């Protein structure tokens, strides 16, 4: 009987500890500041200046490597006065991203996230991930992995939010 009571008590204690350790998640109410490798500031949250595309990636990721040329072509077709674009290197330092981006000629900014502080607000695994935020900081489109169809779907979402802005 004592063993059962002790086991029950320990189970309750462990369960309450695990529940109190839940990770923080993104909320438009709590702005997230992101600084790119070229020191450009981005803020995700309420009252953003313009919608934003945020891409989480890793330089070693095969899907990310396939995605970037297509994403760059897609971004070059956008009105960047109406849309921010930033690629966040999960578990990469500023120096690593500078070296990597110097070998490429892409039209967007890169930001380091060496300790997954930003990534963990949105997910716990899998890249590439693409998020589209409206001006209120709400996620209006998200995808994991890469296919051409996902880029097309993102274009439709961008068209919808830019149409709403114009109204």
- Give the DSSP E fraction (strand runs of 2 or more residues): 15-25%
Strand order of the largest sheet: 5-4-3-6-7
Radius of gyration: 19 Å
| CATH class placement | Alpha Beta
CATH 2nd-level architecture: 3-Layer(aba) Sandwich
Low-confidence stretches: 5-22
* Helix run count: 4
- Spell out the CATH superfamily: Glutaredoxin
Characterize the overall form.
Answer: globular
Rounded to the nearest angstrom, the distance between the terminal CA atoms is 69 Å
Order of helices and strands: HEEEHEHEEEH
Helix and strand layout, with pairings?
Layout: H1 2-20, E1 32-35, E2 41-44, E3 52-57, H2 62-76, E4 84-90, H3 94-102, E5 109-113, E6 129-133, E7 139-144, H4 148-166
Parallel strand pairs: 3-4, 4-5
Antiparallel strand pairs: 1-2, 3-6, 6-7
């Amino acid at each position: 009987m004592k063993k059962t009571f002790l086991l029950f008590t320990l189970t309750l204690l462990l369960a309450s500890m695990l529940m109190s350790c839940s990770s923080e998640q993104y909320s438009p109410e709590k702005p997230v500041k992101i600084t790119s490798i070229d020191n450009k500031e981005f803020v995700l949250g309420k009252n953003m200046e313009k919608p934003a595309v945020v891409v989480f990636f890793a330089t070693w990721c095969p899907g990310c490597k396939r995605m970037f040329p297509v994403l760059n072509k897609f971004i070059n077709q956008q009105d960047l006065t109406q849309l921010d674009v930033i690629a966040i290197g999960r578990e990469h330092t500023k120096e690593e991203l500078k070296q990597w981006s110097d070998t490429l000629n892409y039209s967007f900014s890169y930001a380091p996230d060496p300790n997954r502080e930003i990534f963990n607000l949105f997910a716990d695994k899998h890249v590439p991930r693409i998020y589209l935020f409206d001006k209120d900081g709400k996620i209006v489109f998200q995808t994991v992995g890469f296919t051409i169809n996902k880029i097309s779907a993102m274009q439709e979402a961008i068209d919808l939010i830019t149409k709403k802005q114009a109204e």
